[in-house]
Amino acid sequence: MPFALLTRPGQYGAAVTKKCAAAWGRDEMIEKERSFKPVSGNVMPRFSGIATFMRLPHVTDYTDVDIGLIGVPWDGGTTNRAGARHGPRQIRDLSTMVRNVHHKSRIKPFDLCNCADLGDVPVNPIVLDDPLQRIEDFYARVHGAGVVPLSAGGDHLITLPIMRAIAKRESVGMVHFDAHTDTWDRYFGDSIYTHGTPFRRAIEEGLLDPKRTVQIGIRGALFGNADNDWGIQQGIRVIEIEEFNEMGVEAVIAEARRVVGQGPTYISFDVDGLDPVYAPGTGTPEIGGFTTHEAQRMIRGLQGLNLVGGDVVEVAPPFDPSGNTALVGATMMFEILCVLADAVAKAG
């Protein structure tokens, strides 16, 4: 039976949601029967049922949804090993391990906000411009409905059309975890859209504020000395992996918070920011990255910021038959979901 049918109103009792209640911490709250609760492992074993993100209901009506989890199964911007188009499906499968409460922060994201799986963007896998427009149109509808997006890619180019949809009226800052800056200009002559160019395009289009952008974990050989200079010249704070190791996690968190301030901020997590021993299933792995635990601590350290969305990208299941990279992707999505739900609830 589909998860959406198992999560019928009243099955889990009363709950408080942002759109019909109050922000986290208020004394007076309006209770409403929950219809957005994940399926419990005590109701249906985790290995069974139709896979959705974190066992949440799949919905096509965005009414009363606060945070929408969305798959973007497209890797048309990949320049090395393709396969991230398969990421959302396997992340859904591995996300069955997610439970209700964050073990460290004690945040209960599904109590704070109505969260739902909004399905996949219906992308066109054989061309470039058309899927970029399809992704933008999908997220424009989501954003127009007042839903905050949390996405699973797909390659990193998907973040550009997402930003086109959610940052048209006001540019966003960004905390960007990656091995690569993704601010390069062109590939093979005149190709301006690749997974190595989204943030250059986003800055050029006024969607991304470079002075409120921090990139963490940058490393790897370059084609030329000036490859990463353009972003730095625009004002991006680039923390290469060597500086990360010298600073330590807590100092990096403090620096990220300083850079983005209290303006609207997006979190983008490329799994190749991790050392490939933790996430080998990705298109452009780079030796020498941060650990999964360091990544978790950094995301947790963003609690309290004005967060408006996030994504986890570049999970490519064909290169990791064990499924561990997808588990990493699902876990990072949950980490982002917790700080995102806290922000959405407080925004009330």
CATH architecture tag: 3-Layer(aba) Sandwich
CATH superfamily: Ureohydrolase domain
Number of extended strands = 10
Could you tell me the strand content as a percent range? 15-25%
Largest sheet: 8 strands, parallel
Task: Please write the string of helix (H) and strand (E) elements.
Answer: HEEEHHEHEHEHEHEHHEHEH
Mean pLDDT: 89
- Rg is 19 Å
Number of helices: 11
Shape: globular
Q: In the residues, how many domains can be counted?
A: 1
* Distance between the amino and carboxyl termini: 34 Å
Please mark out the parts with pLDDT under 50 across 5 or more consecutive residues, or reply none: 1-18, 20-34
Roughly what percent helix? 25-40%
Q: What is the spatial order of strands in the main beta sheet?
A: 4-3-5-10-9-6-7-8
Question: Which CATH C-level class is it?
Answer: Alpha Beta
What does this structure look like?
- The protein is an alpha/beta fold.
- The chain has a single domain, classed as Ureohydrolase domain (Arginase, Chain A, 3-Layer(aba) Sandwich), CATH 3.40.800.
- The chain has 11 helices and 10 strands.
- The strands form 2 sheets. The protein has an 8-stranded parallel beta sheet, with helices on both faces.
- α7 links the parallel β7 and β8.
- α4 packs parallel to α5 and α9 crosses α10.
- The N terminus is likely disordered.
